[in-house]
Amino acid sequence: MALHAIPLSLYIHIPWCVRKCPYCDFNSHNAPQALPQREYVDALLRDLDQDLPLAQGRKLRSIFFGGGTPSLFAPEQIARILDGVNQRLTFVPDIEITLETNPGTVEHGPFTGYRNAGVNRISFGVQSFDDESLKRIGRIHDARQAERAVKSAQDAGVENLNLDLMYALPQQTLAGALRDVDIALGLQTPHLSHYQLTLEPNTHFAANPPPLPDEDAAWDMQEACQARLAAGGFAQYEVSAYARAGGECAHNLNYWNFGDYLGIGAGAHAKLTSDDGSIRRRWKLRAPKGYLEHAGTPRRIGGDNVIEIEQLPFEFMLNALRLNCGFAMAEFTARTGLPESAITPALANAQARGWLAREGTCVSATELGWRFLNDVIASFLPESEPARAHAHGGPPHD
Question: Which residues lie below 8 Å from residue 8, measured CB to CB, with a gap of 6+?
Fold first, then answer.
């Protein structure tokens, strides 16, 4: 396996929010009155020092600050992180560096501070431009703040922006979902993430479900919003990602193409390929307190598993089949080290069901396959494994 041909990214997790949203199942925690910014940055860099041997001299293609709410950290702390990473790893010349932010937590002045720190892409957790919808899902910002924050970033010279929008919100109508899309289109960002609100386990909404649109109404919203986005010049390139030409997120594409990524920070996940071709998944302690205490030691690791060979087809499909364009068979072999014959039976079965289509050496989900993507992905599990695919699983992304 040509290790240096596999792209390498870095995910940096900032675990604190002003207030945890009732639908959120990410590793996020209510922020203390005084954030330990300097101490956490020190811990991140110690964590990276421990993981450097896994990078094996490879160049970073992208960096993604996720959370939590990374914009709770001041620009000078983000700069400290990026300077520290750059001292330890080489950046490709056009590296993409994304910072997630919520419109209600931009507390450190103009976005020029983040741009000067090295951030060249910002992902806004807008979710909706309707104030009542925002209240129902527990957001701390309003529609005016959201629009003002986006325009502020643009005025600061950050043009590479993503907006997160959700649909099928409590009491939302089709007209309301389309209005959100129309306002987003008017802001002229190059990227939109558009996904359905789902009730994830271990969240407040799962325990206390709000009144949500039914499946038929949610499907109508999805189809109508997709058509509106297409008319606005946005092509869908992944399950929940839409972009104008050239606006695709490089970091997320690396996930879906089964590339490698380091992960530092509380609860951060990594996927890495070794010289011998084995592929491991590693994650860090979830609790910020424990992570801070052990970031410079082996005890910072919450888990570290080599993926079993028979699991690799499923792991690959869990990512690659999210892409509209699917994958090339040569890419499957290059990224997993397995021959095409390893997936021939499952692939033939999925084609027979009308879930997957193959043109030459390229494989992608059909329209029917997209509707049942969890089942399609689960069909590549070993026969002894229970179905556990989830189309919205994987590492954090916008």
Answer: 55, 58, 59, 60, 61, 259, 260, 261, 262
* Structural domain includes residue 263: no
* Residues pairing with 124 in the sheet: 101, 163
Residues 163, 234 within the same domain: yes
Give the pLDDT confidence of 3-28 residue by residue, as tens digits: 677 999 999 999 999 999 999 999 99
Taking residues 210-218, what's their average pLDDT? 96
3-state DSSP helix/strand/coil percent for the chain, to nearest 5?
40, 25, 35
Cα distances (Å, whole numbers) of residue 64 to 4, 11, 72, 137, 271? 20, 5, 15, 25, 15
Preceding amide of 68 cis, omega within 30: yes
Rounded to an integer, what distance in angstroms lies between the CA atom of residue 81 and that of residue 52?
15
Query: Are 97 and 189 members of one domain?
Result: yes
- Contact between 80 and 119 (Cβ < 8 Å): no
Say which CATH number the domain at 165 has: 3.20.20.70
- Domain of 336 in residue numbering reads as 310-378
Burial of 54 (0-12, 13-18, 19+ CB in 10 A): middle
When divided into structural domains, the chain yields a total of: 2
Query: Is the Cβ–Cβ distance between 167 and 177 less than 8 Å?
Result: yes
β-bridge pairing 60-67 and 91-101: parallel
Q: Report if pTM > 0.90.
A: yes
294 belongs to a structural domain: no
Query: Would residue 389 count as lying in a domain?
Result: no
pLDDT digits (tens, 9 = 90+) for 45-63: 999 999 999 998 899 999 9
Are 314 and 381 spatial neighbours (Cβ–Cβ below 8 Å)? yes
Q: CA-to-CA distance for 104 and 126, rounded, in angstroms?
A: 9
Dihedral-angle region of residue 171 (phi above 0 means left; psi in -120 to 50 means alpha; beta otherwise): left
Which tokens belong to 182?
């129309």
* CATH number of the domain that residue 356 is part of: 1.10.10.10
* Sheet strands (E) in 15-59: 16-17, 29-30
CA distance 238 to 320: 9
